[in-house]
Amino acid sequence: RRGRRRHRRRHRRFALGLALYTLLLLLLVSYLLDYGAGGRGRAGEELLLPRRCPSLAEALGDWGWEEQRQQQQQPPPPAEAAAAGPDAAPNGTTGAAGPGSRAGGKRHIYLHATWRTGSSFLGELFNQHPDVFYLYEPMWHLWQALYPGDALSLQGALRDMMRSLFRCDFSVLRLYASPPGPRDPLALFPAAAPEGSPRNLSTASIFGWRTNKVICSAPLCPDAPRPRAEVGLVDGAACEQSCPPRALRELEAECRKYPVMVIKDVRLLELGALLPLLRDPDLDLRVVQLFRDPRAVHNSRLKAKQSLLRESIQVLRSRHRAEPRGLLRRQLLLPPAAAALAGVGGVRAHQQHRAEFFLGGALEVICQAWLRDLLLARRAPDWLRARYTQLRYEDLVLEPRATLRRLLRFADLPSPAALEDFVLNMTRGAAYSSERPFLISARDAREAVHAWRERLSREQVRQVEAACGEAMDLLAYPLSGEEGGRRGEFPYSVPAPANLAVRKHANARR
């Protein structure tokens, strides 16, 4: 019995020692991996381990803030200071305040529109102007990153992003934009990535950069096929081939050189969201709101329904949040087949016409947002009227030169003769339809205005007018006559009111 007890005690001591030895080895290995040799391997090479919390300097370096601060503190070279004159500010600007302030004189313009209203054509006119720094739908990045957030919920983020962009601070794009090419979120990057690597955002990361005249011309692109001041559409393929990506800080420097900055976007749902920016005297923000006949908008949206499906869902998600704001709720716009089958097999019809269903519902939300903007403009104080103007697509394409001059006067810009010839030629094309609906090209203006009559059925026209009738009334778009027996015979006119914001509401529906 004594021998058995001694054997058991030895076995327990051996098991306990083995457990302690194993625990010691685990702790030792963990210590070596975390702290051993300063994080280096046996051969002295740095291990590719996940980086720990970065220092403040590294974080500021990633966003470019530290570099901007050093550039602001650094005085200009003597030659540049002498050329600037005795009244030049320390940061190289002419005046006591920097760009974007009232003393600096920089003007900012937002083109407020929605999908398929001709906003790309309107923005292209400013893109062609030699005194304008233009951005094409930069808020596209935000909508893609926050999908499927509804349009109303994203308005605050859109406004904050716009504020940063108008101050030529493009670091906000790092929150939403992705560098070109695929990214693996678990991939390990070295501590310092070289300039131009996929880790860094560049001009090639900005939506629509291939047709931007600042990015596709000197000095950002020394090998550009045409100079910046020459009026003419940019060949996207030629720009991509001739203009290598440049760092965003270089684009910011170019942005500060221009007296006028213009942003065109289609994702801000309501004008009221811009009131904090419009009140800011340092921004000197002006808004041009573009409208188009909702029937023509619906016709154009149906041609590109697959491309607009995601955006339509985001707009339609705002429907129930917008209804309690005093607007009546209506039935969603249904495609003709779905409306005919509403009583029998309605669910199946909705499935077959899913894209048209979402596009029609989104158009109704957009028309209600238009109505709110129009009513806000009618009650606007004088200071807001001075910073806001309305434009109809039909006036732009049927009277291009006169409308262009009015727009440029609103922006305090000269009207070059080459730009007037450009807008005239772009509205005198041979045809309206294009295989690529988002491609900017010369179109037949009258066909672009009246194409919806031949392409929409009478039932589709009635549905659009039922959903958008109040906004159409304020915008002087007459409703279709009930006496016409065939499609294409609806009465239509395009009056050109001097100021749509103060147009009196008609008591009787046309």
Short description:
With 510 residues, the protein is mainly α.
Strand content: 5-15%
- Assign the structural class, choosing from mainly alpha, mainly beta, alpha/beta, alpha+beta, or little secondary structure: mainly alpha
Tertiary shape:
elongated
Low-confidence parts, pLDDT < 50 over ≥5 residues? 35-52, 58-103, 180-199, 324-332, 334-352, 482-510
Helix coverage percent of residues?
40-55%
N→C terminal distance: 114 Å
**What Rg, in angstroms, do the CA atoms define?**
30 Å
How would you sum up the major sheet?
Answer: 5 strands, parallel
Task: Provide the spatial order of strands within the biggest beta sheet.
Answer: 2-3-1-4-5
Quote the average pLDDT.
75
Question: What is the chain-wise order of helices and strands?
Answer: HHHHEHEHHHHEHEHHHHHHHEHHHHH
Number of β-strand runs: 5
Q: Count of helical segments?
A: 22
